[in-house]
UniProtKB/TrEMBL annotation:
UniProt cross-references to Pfam families, sorted A to Z: tRNA-synt_1g (PF09334)
Family designation: Belongs to the class-I aminoacyl-tRNA synthetase family.
Catalytic reactions of this protein: tRNA(Met) + L-methionine + ATP = L-methionyl-tRNA(Met) + AMP + diphosphate
GO molecular function: ATP binding; methionine-tRNA ligase activity
Stored CDD domains: MetRS_core
Protein name listed in UniProt: Methionine--tRNA ligase, cytoplasmic
GO annotations of cellular component type: aminoacyl-tRNA synthetase multienzyme complex; cytosol
Any one GO biological process: methionyl-tRNA aminoacylation
Location of the Methionyl/Leucyl tRNA synthetase domain: 34-311
Protein's gene: Mars_0
Length: 313
């Protein structure tokens, strides 16, 4: 309080001059460098106040605070554009998935400009950088033995001649009997669902009755990473600013033991899997989308690794 009163008494003239970073904004030796991202908004809707409050506003407020502190700050965001939700929206509007992404990316960008959200760069995930970086991470995981193959039972619509990804199938929830549960979760009771567990499943595209078939998929071998992750978490809990809720949820996952996680889908719209036997598949959006933070930064500057692989600064 004494310092604040003293600063107030000395007036605006005594304040340090505002930091004006060069463009593109890159880490500067000897300065506090802050990289800020906000959760990538999904591209298949028009943003409303709830989306802005829950997604970009808090990060924008923090970015403005950092700049006022004269910290060297980069704030990036962009639309998350792959996955079944985009395909579903494209079918509703009679457009291709790429046309849907182009349309709604422009709408998102314009709305955030209208609200004066202070992004240094607002990008998207359907870019060549996204493909390159995601496939590179995949190849590194493969080379280090962190991937495995397994056969999965999946619903297939014979009329549409396609396996049905999570959002392309609807049925009765096996837990609460809600009649419009999706193939990945029930919006009524909130429980996660495997699509083959749905009662009376229907294809959302043609309303046909799908059959259970087997298909090969790739999995991230999370149990192999568990020991290293536990050690890292203990260090991070001790030195970082984790909320009590984040600690509790993370510890519950570790306590129950990590399970292999499927990272591929039988879809057309997504980042292609660069491996023989799986080239007709794409990466599951929850493997692909977090990489969007890296690829969006790479679209902003070819020196993106100075932000993402530079813990000393």
């Amino acid at each position: 309080i004494t310092a604040a009163v003293d600063a107030w008494a000395r007036g605006v003239a005594a304040l340090p001059k505002p930091w004006r970073p060069q463009k593109p904004v890159l880490p500067v030796e000897g300065m506090r460098n802050v990289l800020i991202t906000s959760a990538l908004p999904y591209v298949n809707n028009v943003p409303h106040l709830g989306n802005i409050i829950g997604c970009v506003l808090s990060a924008d407020t923090f970015a403005r605070y950092c700049r006022l502190r004269n910290w060297n700050t980069l704030y990036v965001c962009g639309t998350d554009e792959y996955g079944t939700a985009t395909e579903t929206k494209a079918m509703e509007e009679g457009l291709t998935p790429q046309e849907i992404c182009n349309k709604y990316n422009a709408i998102h960008a314009e709305i955030y400009r209208w609200f004066d959200i202070s992004f240094d760069y607002f990008g998207r995930t359907t870019t060549s950088h996204q493909t390159t970086i995601a496939q590179d991470i995949f190849q590194r995981l493969l080379a280090r033995g962190f991937l495995l193959q397994d056969t999965v039972e999946q619903l297939r619509c014979e009329d549409c001649q396609r396996f049905l990804a999570d959002r392309f199938v609807e049925g009765i929830c096996p837990f609460c009997n809600y009649e419009e549960a999706r193939g990945d979760q029930c919006d009524k009771c909130g429980k996660l669902i495997n699509a083959v567990e749905l009662k009376n499943p229907q294809c959302k595209l043609c309303r046909g009755i799908p059959v259970v078939k087997t298909t090969q998929h790739l999995f991230l071998d999370l149990p192999k990473l568990e020991e290293r992750l536990e050690a890292w978490l203990e260090q991070s809990f001790a030195t970082g600013d984790w909320t009590a809720n984040a600690r509790y949820i993370t510890r519950s996952w570790i306590r129950d033991g990590l399970k292999p996680r499927c990272i591929t889908r039988d879809l057309k719209w997504g980042t292609p899997v660069p491996l023989d036997g799986f080239r007709d598949k794409v990466f599951y959006v929850w493997f692909d989308a977090p990489i969007g933070y890296l690829s969006i930064t790479a679209n902003y500057t070819d020196q993106w690794e100075r932000w993402w692989k530079n813990p000393q600064q």
